[in-house]
Every structure is written in C-alpha cells, then in structure tokens.
C-alpha cells in the first residue's frame, strides 16, 4: 500500500530505501541548494545526485539547510551519489568516494552507484564498492544503466550482488524484461528520467493528459504514480518549489487497470540516453 512520501522499499540487505525522492540531474548549481532544502521541507527523504552532475557541493549545502529548517537529523535522510566514468578503477574509486563525501559534507552515504558500466573497469570498480560497503562507509551499493547482460557479468565476478539498478524508465521506455530479471535477482529497480526527459514530451501526450484529467491530477503526477505502482523507486527532478511539492502529492489516488493498460501501450523502446544507444559497453567502442 502506498500511503505517503515516507513509504520505503526494503533492499536485499535489509536497508529501507524511500520510494520517492528528488533527482538533481541537470539542476544548475545555483538552483540546487534551494531545491534540496525545499524537498526536505516538503517531506522528501531521498536525495539523488552524482559527481558528474557538478552539484554535489550544493546538494550538501541544501541538506544542511533542510535539516536546519525541519529539525530532522542526517539519519532521517537517504543520500545517493554516483561514481563518474573517468574515476572507475579500484584505488580511484576509493579516493573519489571520499571526495564525494567531502563535497556533500557527510560522514557516510546511504547508496553509492556505478554511474555507467565502463568497459574493462566495472569489475575492479565493484571490488572497491564491496570494500566501502564492508567497511561500513555506505549502507547500500548498486549500479546505474546496467543491462541484463552487463548485470550478469558483474554478478558472476562479485561477492556482493548490487542492491539497486537505476535505469531510464518512463512509458516510452519500459524495459519489462530487464525489470523481470532484476526482480528475480532481488535487485531494486530505480527510475531516472521518470517524466520522459527530452525523448518524447510526455507532458503533452493526450493519453496521459486524459488519465490526469480523470484523476484531477497533472501528467507528471500520473507518471510518478505509475512508477510507484510498478514497484520502482523514482526520483523526478525539479528546481521549482511548486513542482517539487506537486510531485510529492501522489498518494491520494490510484491508477486503475484501464489506466495501466493505456500507459503500457505507449512503450516505444525510446531512449533519451546517447550512451545506451551508441556505445558497446563490452568493448568500449562506438557502435
């Protein structure tokens, strides 16, 4: 049952991860502090960033401001960041983990993710992730943008299975086979670009618009609710206080079977990600 913004899913290692969070991909540094503060004030517990976004320091400032404004403690939040592609490798991963902590002004992370499965690097990178986890410096570890094939390869070389795979997910790109595989492996799926990014202008899609009208909600709220009902963790991005607040207002309605059927029919296998459409992760070559 989805009741409120504090609802969680339990990862394979027993850690509880919030179902809904704030993403800050493409959030300008000057907008990020207030966005994170607003999110925490609104009740968000999950904040997702990455070194590659160039705003970890501002996320850290926003966390401080949000905690001060609400009286919450660091332990109430679930903070995720990601290792940049150029930083992969065993020693480099350990160094860059600490650098991310320093920018975020944190003593530990709740979730650390490999941002992309860089060819020839992910196995030794994951070994460093396992060390960080075993040393208690991060509560959960996972990956982003791994296909079933790259995930199988990683698991075969690992002692600890990834707990999360953050992938592009929206009605135009549903990847049901990958979700089925992740579920079977006990790996939580997390949606990035849940509102469709630049790939298909879902906010103007007439089917989504009709479903939104039916429930007296916005298209964005329909898409976020769809993620939640499909057992994804989801991290819609916004820097506008009114949208951050509206994106959290998704717990007072439910999409019915007809809604879900219509949304399922929108799948076009349409990626907004250049890297997964043009790059061979096994060889590191352009396709």
TrEMBL record:
The active site is at 53 (proton donor). It comes from the Bacteria. The record marks 82 as: Lowers pKa of active site Tyr. Residues 20-267 form the NADP-dependent oxidoreductase domain. GO terms for molecular function: oxidoreductase activity, acting on the CH-OH group of donors, NAD or NADP as acceptor. Substrate binds at residue 115. Transmembrane segments: none annotated. It holds the Pfam family Aldo_ket_red. InterPro entries: AKR (IPR020471), Aldo/ket_reductase_CS (IPR018170), NAD(P)_OxRdtase_dom_sf (IPR036812), NADP_OxRdtase_dom (IPR023210). Keywords: NADP, Oxidoreductase. Belongs to the aldo/keto reductase family. This is Oxidoreductase. The lineage of its organism: Bacteria, Bacillati, Bacillota, Bacilli, Lactobacillales.
